[in-house]
What we know:
Blueprint: E1 5-7, H1 16-31, E2 39-42, H2 44-52, H3 59-76, E3 89-95, E4 106-109, H4 115-123, H5 126-143, H6 149-163, H7 173-191, H8 199-213, H9 217-225, E5 234-240, E6 251-256, E7 268-273, H10 279-282, E8 288-289, H11 292-296, H12 298-315, E9 319-326, E10 329-337, H13 342-354, H14 360-365, H15 369-372, E11 379-380, E12 390-391, E13 393-396, E14 399-405, H16 408-416, E15 421-425, H17 433-438, E16 441-444, H18 452-460, E17 463-466, E18 472-474, E19 479-482, E20 485-488, E21 492-496, E22 501-504, E23 509-510, H19 516-528, E24 532-536, H20 540-548, E25 554-558, H21 561-564, H22 569-577, H23 581-606, E26 610-614, H24 627-640, H25 645-660, H26 672-677, H27 679-698, E27 704-709, H28 715-736, E28 743-748, H29 751-755, H30 757-760, E29 766-769, H31 771-779, H32 783-796, H33 810-827, E30 832-835, H34 843-852, E31 856-859, H35 864-878
Parallel strand pairs: 14-15, 15-16, 16-17, 24-25, 24-31, 25-26, 26-27, 27-28, 28-29, 29-30, 30-31
Antiparallel strand pairs: 1-2, 2-5, 3-4, 3-5, 6-7, 6-9, 7-8, 9-10, 11-23, 12-22, 13-17, 14-21, 18-19, 19-20, 21-22
Helix pairs in contact: 4-5, 5-7, 6-7, 13-19, 19-35, 20-23, 22-23, 23-27, 24-25, 27-28, 34-35
The protein binds adenosine-5'-diphosphate and magnesium ion (MG) (2 copies).
Amino acid sequence: xxxxxxxxxxxxxxxxxxxxxxxxxxxxxxxxxxxxxxxxxxxxxxxxxxxxxxxxxxxxxxxxxxxxxxxxxxxxxxxxxxxxxxxxxxxxxxxxxxxxxxxxxxxxxxxxxxxxxxxxxxxxxxxxxxxxxxxxxxxxxxxxxxxxxxxxxxxxxxxxxxxxxxxxxxxxxxxxxxxxxxxxxxxxxxxxxxxxxxxxxxxxxxxxxxxxxxxxxxxxxxxxxxxxxxxxxxxxxxxxxxxxxxxxxxxxxxxxxxxxxxxxxxxxxxxxxxxxxxxxxxxxxxxxxxxxxxxxxxxxxxxxxxxxxxxxxxxxxxxxxxxxxxxxxxxxxxxxxxxxxxxxxxxxxxxxxxxxxxxxxxxxxxxxxxxxxxxxxxxxxxxxxxxxxxxxxxxxxxxxxxxxxxxxxxxxxxxxxxxxxxxxxxxxxxxxxxxxxxxxxxxxxxxxxxxxxxxxxxxxxxxxxxxxxxxxxxxxxxxxxxxxxxxxxxxxxxxxxxxxxxxxxxxxxxxxxxxxxxxxxxxxxxxxxxxxxxxxxxxxxxxxxxxxxxxxxxxxxxxxxxxxxxxxxxxxxxxxxxxxxxxxxxxxxxxxxxxxxxxxxxxxxxxxxxxxxxxxxxxxxxxxxxxxxxxxxxxxxxxxxxxxxxxxxxxxxxxxxxxxxxxxxxxxxxxxxxxxxxxxxxxxxxxxxxxxxxxxxxxxxxxxxxxxxxxxxxxxxxxxxxxxxxxxxxxxxxxxxxxxxxxxxxxxxxxxxxxxxxxxxxxxxxxxxxxxxxxxxxxxxxxxxxxxxxxxxxxxxxxxxxxxxxxxxxxxxxxxxxxxxxxxxxxxxxxxxxxxxxxxxxxxxxxxxxxxxxxxxxxxxxxxxxxxxxxxxxxxxxxxxxxxxxxx
Length: 888
Ligand code: ADP
Ligand code: MG
Ligand code: MG
C-alpha cells in the first residue's frame, strides 16, 4: 500500500520532495530530539492523488489520515473533539519551495462550543479559551471558508468602541463569548452555513483548502515566474498546538542564529510575551528584541541558545527559527536556512569555514555571484531613513549624489570644472556619451533595463535609473517636476540605482570596498577556479580598479575613447579631413604622444599583467559633427557670412561628413577595414603602444601587450594587419633598444571568422569573442534598433526567451563560439581564448565559457569579483579541466 502520511518521527530533511520543506524539517528536528509538538505530514503525493481523483479525499488517503490522527491522539493523550481532553491542532501548508500564495496556517483547530469549555476548565483560564476559539473562527472562516477578514475586524472594532476598550487584552471572557456568537452570525450570513462544530469535519475542510490553494491564481503565477513545476504539489502538516498566549510565562517569537544583515555571530530576533502565532509579524504589538528574553525567562533563553547552536551544527548553515514558550516550556515550530544580505552571506560562509562546520567549496556555493553586485558600488548608509521623491527602474546599481543637469554638453562642462553632476534626460543616445562619462549617475524618464543609458552606465559602473515615468522633464526650461515638487538645474539630488529611488538633497554614503571576509572568500575562489578573469578597461583609472578587484589582466582596452577627448577632437578631425597622406601623417604624429601617455598609465597600473588593446574600431564619422546640425549651420552662414573663411571650413567639413556617411554604419567602414584602407592610423596606434611598452619596461615594470585586430572576417585581413604590427614592433625595438614580448590576435565578432577559425588561427596568437557584435551579426540585427523597436515584442510573445544582449544565446552565438574554439585549437593547440562582450560578467555566460573551454572571461572592473566567484562555481559544478590553462 502506498504511504501518503508520515508521522514526524518517520521523516527526515532529505524528504523535502515528499514532505515539503516545512514537514521535512519538522521531522528532522523531531528525530534529533528537539521539543517539537508532535504531528504528521500529509505528503505532496497525497495532493497529487487528490487532484487525480477529482478532488476527493477518500479511500486509502482518508484511512491513513485517520490512522495518523489516532497515533497523534494516543501520543498526546488527547482526542479531537473530546469534551474532557480535547486535542487542538494547527494545519500548515508546505511545498518543496517556499511559496507565497499558499494557504495561511490555521491555528486552534478542534475548537467548538463544547471543547472550548474543556480548555477553559483545564487551563483554569476562561478568557484564554474563548479568545482562542474566536481566533480560530476568524482564521478558519477567512482561510478555509474564504470570507473576507474585514467582516470580523469591523465587528471587533465596533465592539471595542461600544465597550470603550482600547485594545484586545481588555476584553473579558464574557466579551469574547459575545463576539463569538456574532462571528457565527457572520459565517451564517456570508457563507450560508453554520460554523462547522465537528472537529473532524473542520480538519478535512482545512486539508482540502490547503490542497486547493496549490492551484489558486497567486500560486500559479508565482510558479510560472519562478519556473517551479506544477506537478510538485503541496504537503499539509497537522501538528498539535502549543500556546504562547497562556500568560506572562508564555510567548512566541522568531530567531536567527546569526545576524541576517551583517552576518555577525550573535542570536538575532524578536519575541512577544503572551502572544500566539502570527502576532509577532502582524505588527499590532511591537515585539521585544530577543535578548530581552534573557532577562524575562533566563532558563528558556539558555535553552533557546543551545537549540540554535545544535540546529546550526546540524544543518551547517544559519537558521531562521520559529519558537513558542508555553508556561515556561520551549517548543520549536519551524527551522529553515535564513535569508540574508550579500554582506551577511559572505561573512557567514567564511565564519562557518573557520568554525570547521563547512569546507571552502561549500562556502563558495553559499554565495550567489549576482548578489555581490550590491557590495561593489557606493551605497546609501542603511541607518539613513529614506524619503524617496519617486521611483524608476533600478537599471545600474550604486548610489550617487550630484547636481541636476539636463544636457550632455552641460554635464561635461560642469564635470570638467570638478562638480558632481547627475544627468537627467528623457533618454540618452550615443551622442550623449561625453555627458555620461562626466556624470556621477544617469536618470531617464523613458527606456527600460536595456536602454542605451542602462547599458552604458552598467558598463562604466555608474548608477542609473531608467523608465522613471513620474518624472516630468522640461529640458528647455531646465527643470523636472514630480507632482508638485519642482527640481531646477543645479539643485542637488541623490539616487539609488539599486532600488530606483530618487531623493532630494545629499545623503550619507558608504564606499565600496572589499571587506576582509570578501577578500578571503575570493582568494578561495581563485584557488578553485580554472578560468581566468580579466577586466574591460579603457583608461588608467579603470585599470586601477580592475587591479584592485583582482583582475588577471585587461581583456579589452578600447582605444576610441582616446580619440574622443575634447582637446584631441580637433586633431582627430584634422586627421580625418586630410587630403593627402602627408597631411594625415602630420596629424597622427600629434596624436601619438597623447595615446602613448594613456598606454603608459595603463601598463603601469597593471604591473606586468597582460593588456589586450583593440585598435580603432568605430567608423570615422563618429568623430565628426552631426550632419543635420552642420547643414543648418552652413545654411545660416551662407545667408549671413557669404565668403567668410568660417563658411569655407564648415562647407569642407560638411562635404567630408557627407562623404563618410554610411547607409548602415554597423556593417560599414569600421574595424580592421579602417586599418586596411588607412594603415597609417593603425600604425600610429601600434607605435604608441610599443613606445609605451618600451618606456614602462625601462622604468622597471614588466609589460605584456596584446594587440587585438577588430572585426576580422577573412584570414587575409588579419595577415595584412599582423604584418603591420610585427614590422612596427621591430622598428620600435630597434629604436628603443629594448626587447619585449607581445601577442597579436583578433576579435571574433562576425560569423565568418568563427566558421573559418582554423584558417584565422594561423595568424592569431589569441581569439577574443566580442559577443556584443557577434550577437548583432549572428542575429543580423543592430542592437539599438532591436532594443528600441522590436526586441521587447519578441520577448513578450516568447519568440525569444531573453534579450540576447543580456543573456548569451547559447544555441546560436554559443555554437559559433564553440566552433571558433574548436577550429582555432585544431590549428594551434595553445591558442589563447577569451570573451570580452558584456556577457563576460554574467554568471550563466561565465559558466558557458568554462564549459566551452575558454581560458578567460573579461568584464567591467566592478563585476570582476563576482566573475571570480562565478568562475569558481563553474569549476566546482563541472569539474576541473584536464589541460593546463595559459592565463589566470
Ligand atoms: P508561515 O509559513 O506563514 O510561517 P506557519 O505554518 O509557520 O506559517 O505558522 C504561522 C504561525 O503559527 C507561526 O508563528 C508558527 O510558529 C505558528 N504555529 C504553527 N503551528 C503551531 C502550533 N502547532 N502551535 C503553536 N503555534 C503554531
Ligand atoms: Mg513559519
Ligand atoms: Mg565589435
